[in-house]
Amino acid sequence: MKCSFTSKTDLARSYFPNHSDSGARRLLMDTIASTPPLISMLHELGYSKEQHFFTPRQVEMVIEYLGNPFK
Predict the structure, then answer these.
(1) Which helix (H) or strand (E) holds 4?
(2) How high is the pLDDT of residue 1?
(3) DSSP letter, residue 50
(4) How many CB atoms lie within 10 A of CB 46?
(5) How many whole angstroms separate alpha carbon 8 and alpha carbon 12?
């Protein structure tokens, strides 16, 4: 299985397709920050606010907490 990383912007556009890249990213990061169990789990998975990409496991956690934007 190929391990790939997802940019914060790409994931954000999936959740907020009607926003600009920066607006979508800001909304996603605000949503994550306002979901304490999610941000806690992301930190356990090595998440850093400064990183530009989510690991596959971090993406799984975002989808688990926020729902699947790809449906």
Answers:
(1) none
(2) 43
(3) T
(4) 10
(5) 6
Q: Which amino acid is at 32?
A: I
- Shortest CA distance to 31 belongs to which of 69, 70, 71? 69
Report pLDDT digits (tens) over 10-66. Answer: 999 999 999 999 999 999 999 999 999 999 999 999 999 899 999 999 999 999 999
For 13-27, write each residue's pLDDT tens digit.
999 999 999 999 999
In 1-71, where do the E strands start and end?
6-7, 53-54
Query: How far is residue 22's CA from residue 4's CA, in Å, rounded to a whole number?
Result: 22
Side chain identity at residue 7, one-letter code: S
Taking the C-alpha atoms of residue 45 and residue 61, their distance in angstroms, rounded to an integer, is 9
Q: Read off the amino acid at residue 35.
A: T
